[in-house]
Each structure stands twice: as C-alpha cells, then as structure tokens.
Design a protein that fits this description.
Distance between the termini: 76 Å
Structural class: alpha+beta
Strand content: 25-35%
Shape: globular
Radius of gyration: 26 Å
C-alpha cells in the first residue's frame, strides 16, 4: 500500500495565492446557455437557485488563456507545449498527457438579479441588401454595469518556477485591467467588454503552520471583509503587485477611433417589446450608468463597412476573398468559416435629441395612403454637441487592409456612407471631426497618426504615410487584375 502511494503522481503544494476582484461589464454581454427553451432564441445562463446570472469558470479560463497565448506569440498561432498559457492553464485539450492547471477558477454569480436587455438581429443577403428568409433571431443580454465577483487560486507546486507562473498570471490578469478581454458570445461585435479596477491578493506559505490555518479558515464567500492577518491581501494593479512582466507584447494590431457629427437623424430599430404607449419604432437604447442611452451597436457599423468594402472591391474587380479575410465567414455548415479579424465596439451616442415623427405608407399604384398604414417613429437627431464614435481594432493587418479602412473612413467622413436604417430618406449621415489611429507591432512599438477637421481645413499627420497605405491597396488591386 505504501509503495502504491509513493508511485502516484502527487502534487506537492508549497504555496497558495488567492486572488479576488470584481469584474464589471462595460457593454452588454451575451452569456447564453445554448438551449432553445425560452421566449428568445438565446437565453442567459442563470444560477438555478438564485436566478442570478452565471459566469462559468471555464469561460473565464478560456478568455484568459487565449489572451495570454496571443500576448506571447501573436494572433493566429498554434499553442505550444512550452508556452506560458500551457504552463499556467495546463495541457491542451488534444494533449492526453497534459498537466493539470495550477490555476483554479471558480464559477461566478452576479452580485444582483441581473438587468436584461433584448436585442434582435437579422442576416443580410449581401447581393440584394435585404434580409435573408427566416434569418431573424433575438438574444437576451446582460446589461452593462453587471458585476461578477471573481475568485482565483494559484497553486505553487514543488518543481514549478514560481516567477514564471506569476509572470503568466500577471500578463493574463492585466488584460482584464486594460479592457482588452471580452467575455461571452459576439465578442468581435462589441459585446462583453469588461474590466477589473483592482485586485486583492493573499499569499499563504503552506510550510508555515500559521499560514496553513489561515488558508483553511479563509472565508471564500465574503467579498467585503477586510482581513487583518500578516499575509493580508495586497491591493492594486496586478503588475504593481507582482512586478513580473519581462516579455514584449507580440500582437500586431491597428486601432482606429473616429468621432463624427450627426447630420440630421439616425434610426437603428430597437427590438425590445414594450406595453407602454411608445412609438411604433424607437431608436436602440442600452443601459449605461443606470440610465438608458442611445447607442450605435458594433453590428450596425460592421454591416455598413462590410457592404461598402465589397462594393469597392467589386467595382474594381477584386475577388471578395479579400473582404472575407478581414470580416470573416459566418455561414453555417461551412468548413471554411473563420472569425472576423475586425473588432468593432458598441459606443454611446452623446447628447442626442429624441423626437417623434408621424409617417404614412403610400400606395404606389394610386399615389394615396394605404389604409391603416399610419405609424410613428422616434429617431434621434443631432445637435451641436451630438457625437457618434467609431471604435475598431484590426488584428494582424497588412498595409493594404489599413488602406481599405482609410477609404471606408473617408466615405463616412464625407457623409457618403450612411449608418442605420431608412438611409433612403436621408437618415444616418455623418460628418468627420477627428480620427486617431495607432498601429502596434512587436518591433516598432506604437505608431500614431491623426486626422482633424477644423472648419474648412483638414489637418493630417504624416499624410504621405497614410497615402502609402491606400497606394498599397491599389497595388494589390493591380496585381489581382493582372
């Protein structure tokens, strides 16, 4: 019996590090349960006892693991056995002999009964520009501001490099501090943006008798009590606490944040049903800081940018594979399906004005009104201080792809590309104010450009370099046509 005990692969744990934090949603999150039962096509995952929202440890682990791997190797690279992600989170799924994860991540239940938003969507036929048949769906989302208590426990085993574990952990958790990790579904369209303000960390040396007792008596469910042990949590930013980050970020990405004036009106239909006396059609709103704000969802911006990009490349005769490489392929049962490299965030439309308009439908044959076709709408209108923001990130870009994005921004800037619905009656026109662009590469670090509209003058930093991006797109076009 004793020999069997000695032959077992036992984990000799020398130290335990407990980490607590509060995760806050910056935008609505789609934490669906995958089931079909319910009034919507995708219901939220809830705790069966309290009915509060549930964020599983597997979801958190997957998001942190992916971020850590991309930070170390860049986008689109296969995970390796000697990477930081496998060292911290254990062996890969296809590795039958992979080790257990030294990081334990607990499921999290939201602090309060969640506020829920309903969103609807529809798949658009790119050829006709209309909705596909039977392709409408609706989602149940957690409102922005929902809080989840996080609880992690890092095991420092005999034979493991503690500094390497702390470095991997600090990089992964840093992604939550910097709003760089999204959770749930539709992350590439602005859902699930979240952050952590600060961490509480306790360290227990299990070779010490007092620390062992302190760990055994630790209250894992109390999130407010301030402990007074000698090993009381350090509080603050994760890098300031561990001071372990010796690697260079290997992710190559291009950020673009552009602000526009709203010229006229904008209407993006809300799918939320209300029994109150409200107009037939209302612009989409979402909870921000416990009040409803008019928003511009990432899905709307993605749709118009993709459609205009395809129009550009089709006009000049380039294969649309170039667009699919950027925006992804989401067709069901398609073996070539790929996720989008373009991430567009959901943004609040600042200081907009809501007005109700009465409208009627016209009979095209008689030229008169259709019987019973009176309806009213509540779009938003632009004022002197109304700001619409486009906030996007393109992963692993080449110069030609950046050039195409600049052409799309030009069309938005000059009011040639409308946003939202009812563009045929003049809605959704924007006028550029300012655009900030950043490109991060492992070798050059950060490069920065900006475009500013001041009255009738357009100021562009390093205009020649930005023009070179467009030239690279034109060269790619020439090569394809040749």
């Amino acid at each position: 019996m004793s020999s069997q005990r000695l032959n077992r692969h036992q984990r000799i744990i020398l130290e335990r590090i407990i980490i607590k934090a509060i995760l806050i949603l910056d935008t609505p999150a789609c934490l669906g349960n995958g089931g079909a039962d319910g009034p919507t096509d995708l219901m939220l995952l809830r705790d069966s006892i309290s009915s509060k929202a549930l964020l599983t440890g597997a979801s958190i682990a997957g998001a942190l693991r992916n971020y850590l791997h991309e930070y170390q190797y860049g986008y689109g690279q296969d995970e390796k056995n000697d990477s930081l992600s496998t060292y911290l989170f254990g062996g890969r799924r296809k590795d039958e002999d992979g080790e257990q994860s030294p990081l334990i991540l607990h499921d999290s239940i939201s602090n309060e009964i969640p506020k829920v938003e309903l969103r609807d969507g529809v798949k658009i036929d790119i050829t006709t520009g209309t909705a596909q048949n039977s392709a409408k769906y609706d989602l149940e989302l957690l409102a922005a501001g929902t809080e989840f208590p996080l609880y992690f426990e890092l095991l420092i085993e005999k034979g493991k490099e503690k500094n390497q574990l702390l470095e991997a952990l600090s990089i992964a958790l840093q992604g939550l501090e910097n709003h760089e990790i999204n959770i749930g579904m539709k992350k590439r369209r602005g859902f699930g943006v979240c952050h952590v303000d600060k961490w509480q960390i306790w360290q227990f040396n299990l070779k010490d008798y007092k620390d062992r007792l302190a760990w055994l008596s630790f209250d894992r469910d109390d999130w407010k009590e301030k402990y007074s042990q000698d090993n009381l949590a350090m509080e603050g930013k994760i890098i300031d606490i561990f001071k372990e980050k010796n690697r260079t970020d290997q992710r190559h990405r291009f950020y673009l944040k552009a602000t526009f004036k709203l010229i006229g009106s904008l209407l993006i239909r809300s799918g939320q049903f209300s029994t109150d006396a409200v107009p037939d059609v209302v612009h989409l709103k979402s909870q921000r800081n416990n009040k409803d704000e008019s928003i511009l969802p990432g899905t709307s911006f993605t749709g118009i940018l993709r459609h205009r990009a395809k129009k550009i490349v089709k006009t000049i005769g380039v294969a649309t594979n170039f667009i699919d490489d950027i925006f992804g392929i989401a067709e069901e049962n398609n073996q070539d399906a790929k996720s989008s490299r373009l991430m567009i965030n959901e943004t609040v439309i600042e200081k907009s004005i809501s007005l109700v308009q009465n409208r009627i439908a016209i009979d095209r044959f008689t030229g008169g009104t259709l019987h019973g076709a009176l309806f009213d709408e509540q779009p938003i209108f632009g004022g002197d201080e109304t700001i619409v923001t486009l906030d996007l990130v393109l992963r692993q870009p080449n110069n030609a792809e950046i050039g195409l994005l600049l052409l799309l921004i030009k069309d938005l800037w000059t009011s040639d590309l409308p946003v939202g619905g009812e563009s045929s009656i003049g809605r959704g026109r924007l006028q550029g104010i300012k655009a900030e662009m950043r490109r991060f590469t492992p070798d050059k670090g950060e490069e920065y450009w900006q475009i500013i509209q001041e009255e009738d003058k357009l100021h562009i930093s390093d205009a020649n370099l930005l023009e070179n991006f467009v030239s690279d797109f034109n060269k790619l076009v020439s090569q394809v046509l040749a």
